[in-house]
Write a structure and sequence with these properties.
Blueprint lengths: L10 H11 L4 E3 L2 E3 L2 H10 L3 H10 L2 H10 L5 H20 L1 H14 L11 H10 L9 H5 L10 H14 L1 H4 L3 H7 L5 H20 L5 H13 L6 E6 L2 E6 H15 L1
Antiparallel strand pairs: 1-2, 3-4
């Protein structure tokens, strides 16, 4: 029998106390009681990101759970967690902005040597968060960009992915990082090149219409896109809730056609 302390004085409090003593996953009266971790895992497995957003609005621990899952980018759950962070951020930037800023601070810290760990998916997560409100979180963009040139090349795909995500809605805030766009197209990693092609596509029209890139620079970019047509490098990319195998050459041909339409 479970004894309750003297301060539990009514049925509701007694039930809450008993539930707090139960294991993380327990069945009572025929109804499974799930832990927060299990709820999130179930939502990720069923791709129910909307329910995760609802959970995130009620419980701050959801974001930290998603960050943990997101570190495994070779799984669907990992990428769904990354996307869920972006969706939740659109709500939290309005309702719990200070907490969202703290989440950003922790992700940036995870990229530093002092953290004692490696924030494997931190750039992607930061890109999703900033894309929720690029204007309000504009100060984070240069911090993401500077990670591209750190010694650990493992972060480069994530940095380019993040800039491309932000550029989808705020290309004018990303166009200044034209050096990264240029370097990404000649990177040895096929995934970096593929994300780089997407980045260029998102920036191209704004860069031209607002005269943010010189004509010489635009020619250099177009030349690199064209030269990638014969690149047979391949990478698996998360798209539309699945992994798709992309060849750099095929992706560059698509980008080349899209850029010509915008000239």
């Amino acid at each position: 029998m479970i004894s309750c302390p003297f301060f539990i004085y009514n049925r509701e409090n007694t039930l809450k106390y008993i539930l707090s003593l139960l294991p993380a996953s327990y069945i009572i009266w025929g109804v499974p009681i799930q832990s927060l971790k299990e709820k999130i895992q179930h939502c990720l497995e069923t791709n129910d990101l909307g329910s995760i957003v609802s959970l995130a609005k009620e419980n701050r621990k959801v974001m930290s759970q998603l960050v943990r899952v997101a570190y495994d980018k070779e799984t669907l759950a990992g990428w769904r967690a990354i996307k869920a962070v972006g969706l939740a951020s659109k709500e939290l930037v309005r309702t719990d902005y200070e907490f969202l800023r703290e989440t950003v601070r922790k992700l940036l810290w995870s990229l530093s040597d002092e953290s004692g760990g490696i924030g494997w998916s931190a750039p992607e997560l930061l890109g999703e968060i900033v894309s929720a409100d690029p204007k309000r979180l504009s100060d984070i963009i240069p911090l993401i960009a500077q990670v591209y040139e750190v010694e650990e090349e493992v972060f480069r795909p994530g940095v380019v992915y993040a800039l491309a995500r932000i550029a989808e809605t705020a290309p004018e805030q990303v166009a200044v990082y034209q050096k990264i766009a240029l370097m990404s197209l000649v990177d040895k990693n096929p995934l970096v090149k593929i994300y780089g092609l997407e980045l260029v596509e998102h920036l191209w029209q704004t860069a031209i219409s607002e005269n943010l890139w010189s004509s010489e620079y635009r020619r250099r970019i177009m030349g690199l896109v064209e030269s990638a047509n014969l690149d047979r490098g391949e990478a698996w990319v998360y798209k539309k809730d699945g992994f798709i195998r992309y060849e750099v050459g095929e992706a560059s041909k698509i980008t080349q056609e899209n850029l010509k339409k915008l000239l």
